[in-house]
Specification:
alpha+beta, two-stranded antiparallel sheet, elongated
């Protein structure tokens, strides 16, 4: 089981190494609905964590793996929801 300290350590290491590798660590607002929002039509729907496929309820035709849908939403997140670590 992971604790909050483990996530803090991962974030600390990523932040520490960003200068060495020439990258940047960006943090997205923790309440941004990345896994509950359709990456095509931006409809937000409730989803239990046990549900692994995202099927948009509006009928736009978006059916994807939940993690793939979330990754697309995180790639396109509005800048006002992002900050540097």
């Amino acid at each position: 089981m992971l604790s909050n300290n483990c996530f803090y350590e991962i974030r600390r290491q990523l932040t520490y190494k960003q200068a060495h590798y020439g990258t940047k660590v960006e943090l997205v607002d923790r309440w941004f609905p990345s896994s509950k929002m359709c990456c095509k039509c931006h409809h937000i729907q409730s989803m239990p964590l046990s549900e692994r496929m995202f099927v948009c309820e509006t009928g736009c035709g978006n059916i994807r793996d939940r993690d793939e849908n979330a990754s697309i939403n995180l790639r396109n997140v509005p800048l006002d929801k992002v900050r540097l670590a």
